[in-house]
Amino acid sequence: MTRQLCSSRAIRSPSTYSRTCDCKFTSNVRQVKRVFSRKKTRQTIDEGGWLHTGDVGEWTSNGSLRIIDRTKHIFKLSQGEYIAPERLEDGYIRSRWIEQLFVDGISTEATVVAIVVPDEEYVRSNFSKANANISFEELCKDEKLKEIIFTDLKRLAKDYKYKHYETISNIYVHPEPFSQENGLITSTLKTRRTAVRQYFQDIIHSLYEIPDQIKKPMNVEQQSKL
Hints:
By secondary structure, the protein is an alpha+beta fold. The protein has helices at residues 14-17, 38-44, 85-92, 120-126, 136-140, 143-159, 193-199, 201-209, 220-224; strands spanning 20-25, 51-59, 65-70, 75-76, 82-83, 98-104, 112-118, 168-173. The chain has a three-stranded antiparallel β-sheet with strand order 1-2-3.
C-alpha cells in the first residue's frame, strides 16, 4: 500500500496528530453489484469514488499505514481533543495486572477513565493481601490493589508518550471479565463498546465526580511493601 492510495484527514489538531487519518481508498476496481441499500452505498462510497473504510489509521516512521481504531469509536473531550480509545487500550493492556480494559470519556471532561478487569492469577500470585480465603470480588475492592494498577497505568502512559489527556485519571476495578455471556464482547472477542459503555454508565460518570480518588503514584519501594 502506498501513500497515494490514501486520502487523509486529521482527526486531531495538526500540531499534535497530523499523521493520523480517516482511511478512504480508490482504485480501478468497479462495483459490479450493489450489495447494500442506496443509502448505505452513498455512505460507503462518496461522489468522488472514494471508499470509506470506517478505519482510523496513522502513518508509521517507515511509511506504512497502521490501523489504530474505528471512526465510530472516536470520542471528543471537553478541550476539543479527539480520543481513539483502542489505540490507548493497546498500550495500557500491557500491564501484567490487567486482563481486560475499557478506556472511555465524556464530552464535558478533559481526561479519560477506565474500567479494569485484573488478571486474577497474576493478582493472587503478586498481591500480598491475596489468599485463598479472600474472594476475587473482595480483592478488587481493595484500595491498595487499585493504587498498584493505577500506578502501572501511569507508567505505561509515560512509556508510550501518551498526551496528558490520554493519561487515565481514574479507574474502576471490576471482578467479572467481559464475555459473550454477559454481552460485553462479540463472538470474535471484540469489545462491544456501546454495550460496555451502557453497562458501566453510572460508574464512568462517578469516576469524574470524586477528585483525587486515587492517591499519588507509588514508587517501586512502596509497592514492594504491599
